[in-house]
Design goal:
The complex is a heterodimer of chains A (14) and B (257). Helix content of chain A is 0%, strand content 29%. Chain A contains no helices and two strands. Chain A has 14 residues and is mainly beta. With 257 residues, chain B is mainly beta. Chain B is 14% helix and 46% strand. Chain B has helices spanning 10-19, 73-80, 142-153, 210-216, and strands at 2-6, 25-31, 35-41, 47-53, 60-63, 67-72, 88-93, 99-106, 111-118, 127-128, 136-141, 158-163, 167-173, 178-184, 197-200, 204-209, 225-230, 236-242, 245-251, 254-255. In chain B, α1 packs antiparallel against α2 (73-80) and α3 runs antiparallel to α4 (210-216). The relative contact order of chain B is 0.18. Classes of the chains: A mainly beta (14), B mainly beta (257).
Chain lengths: 14, 257
């Protein structure tokens, strides 16, 4: 089964 | 001082109903040039909401000093439900506010209702979202997308979206069985908002959590159409255009690490 990714993995934070 | 008057309360009522189940607390950023903007991420960090209400969304708008208004959306929703959709709605805040004044006016019935909502200090980190390259963009009737998202959630907690140059296929694989819905690209010249437009650079096959898609389609009352931008192994963007602004959702996909 596939895993739910999070947005922080893709977008830079500040 | 902030003073933003909407011609009707319905936009703000619909926007808050569309986001309050995904994020509980959020900061409203107010400025003279940008109007009101919001960026908020849900607790699981899977769904991000970006709202922009340009000054042109308002009948009257002034904001002498940049303001950040920290709001509990459940509380704001309670107050917004007090006004009728066709009322004028004005948001008023002082320069260093501890509350937001919300005024509804029904000019025909000479009724004015005023509410004051306590503000909060909300610590939120802001993510940087670059204008993304995408493999495909689909524009379809918002109601059609909402129906697929709601129907397929009853079958599976995941929804697979497969896009080719002439169709979008939604697929659910659950414990009771499987289901799929295919929407073919079509241009309806008599009623353009009924068209299904696919702009494809590369075929896409992505899987998303059905729960999050069902949160996104709560924005359906805001717009006739929704535009979905998809890229392999990257977050998807769902955009509901408003008059002079937008409500966008960014959703992280599911895949093998």
């Amino acid at each position: 089964p596939s895993h739910q990714q999070t947005l922080t993995k893709f977008f830079g934070g500040s | 001082m902030l003073e933003g008057k909407f011609e009707t309360a319905s936009t703000m009522k619909k926007v808050i109903e569309a986001i309050k189940d995904s994020v509980k607390l959020c900061n409203l950023n107010c400025s003279q040039n940008d109007g009101i903007t919001v960026q908020a991420i849900d607790d699981s960090r899977v769904l991000l909401i970006a709202l922009k209400l340009d000054p042109s969304c308002f009948q009257e708008f002034r904001c002498d000093k940049d303001l950040v208004l920290g709001l509990d959306l459940e509380s704001l929703s309670k107050i917004l439900r007090q006004g009728n959709p066709e009322d004028y709605l004005t948001l008023i805040a002082e320069d260093s506010p501890d509350s937001l004044l919300i005024v509804f006016e029904d000019s025909k019935k000479d009724r004015i209702s005023e509410f004051s909502l306590k503000l909060m200090d909300i610590d939120s980190d802001v993510l940087t979202i670059d204008e993304m390259e995408h493999d495909c963009a689909i524009t379809l009737p918002a109601a059609a997308f909402a129906k697929v998202a709601r129907d397929m959630k009853t079958l599976s907690e995941s929804l697979q979206i497969l896009v080719t140059k002439d169709s979008v296929k939604f697929k659910a694989d659950g414990s009771i069985g499987t289901g799929s819905v295919i929407l073919r690209a079509r241009t309806n010249l008599d009623d353009t908002k009924e068209s299904i437009l696919i702009d494809l650079n590369k075929p896409v096959n992505l899987t998303f959590g059905a729960k999050y898609l069902n949160d996104i389609v709560k924005a359906t009352p805001l717009a006739d159409t929704v535009t979905i931008k998809l890229t392999d192994k990257a977050p998807a963007m769902f955009e509901y255009k408003l008059q002079g602004g937008f409500l966008r959702y960014y959703l992280a996909p599911k895949f093998e690490d």
